[in-house]
Amino acid sequence: MKNQRLKYSVYLLVFVLLGSFVMGMKKQETKIVKPIPKVGVLQFVSHPSLDLIYKGFVEELERQGYKDKETINIDFQNGQADQSKLSSMSQQLIGKKPDVLVGIATPAAQALANQTKDIPIILGAISDPKAAGLVESNNKPGGNITGVSDQSPVEAQLKLMTQLMPDIKTVGVIYSSAEDNSLSQVNRFKDIAEKEGIEVKTYAVPSTNEISQMTHVMTGEVDAIYTPTDNTIANGFQTIVSIADEANIPIFPSVDTMVDEGGVATIGINQYDLGVQTAKMVVDNLTGKMTPSDTPIYTFNTGDLVINEEKAQKLGITIPQELKEEAKK
Questions:
Q1: What is the pTM of this model?
Q2: Which CATH number do you get for residue 264?
Q3: Of 263, 295, 273, which Cα lies nearest the Cα of 125?
């Protein structure tokens, strides 16, 4: 009888241990198959400023513990300035049911916004989301979209121009007529410049195909060129630089990376930092710390002074010593 009881006790113990082992294995399996977050990223085109935004975005995600293909899946698509590609790529990204979407540059963000009102969209570098029709208000977006603005410090940029060219009378501004937020920045620049007694002539182009012809016209009519934060212009910036150099006309871009590409100087928002802030907002969304509808568009209050001393020297522009000491380059 005692042996039988002992036998039952042993069986019971084995059963309990086996059950615990099986439950433990199931828990382990659950941890292994738990899905990791998915982020779909659509970039308008490849050029240094947008590429740097994406680099800052990926590296900041990794710093916060979200490494691609390990703790997060990033599906990156680049439309290469082709509107039809942007539309089809948006559909592909949304079809994979991501947890959040990211639009780098206005056309990419608009393409995503046209396809979904449900999946959160974080904007990477959109000058004026409200003017672009992406949100109800930059302070209270009201839908599934929020993000980061790359709105330029126009007042500081104009002041820099007058410091470097005290006798400037006429500035030409070339921009894309297809980008609403570009027109918003152009109007701001024009209002501020005309109050300072500087005439502003605007030159709108529908696409990169017209940049060369328009730049030839512009360089014959102005003392300097100002380029807003505009993806079409950024894509054709080397054409503008080449023609302006022949005419000995300086270019003052809004974006810091364009100074390296042939501009004279600017006070601009660091493109890498734009990507970093975009990543922070994505993480906040993934962790439930914020929802797009009531999260204001993030706008930087300061910018970096960047100077191309070699280009300034070629154009006969003297850089004051105090600006040289302040500048990053």
A1: 0.79
A2: 3.40.50.2300
A3: 273
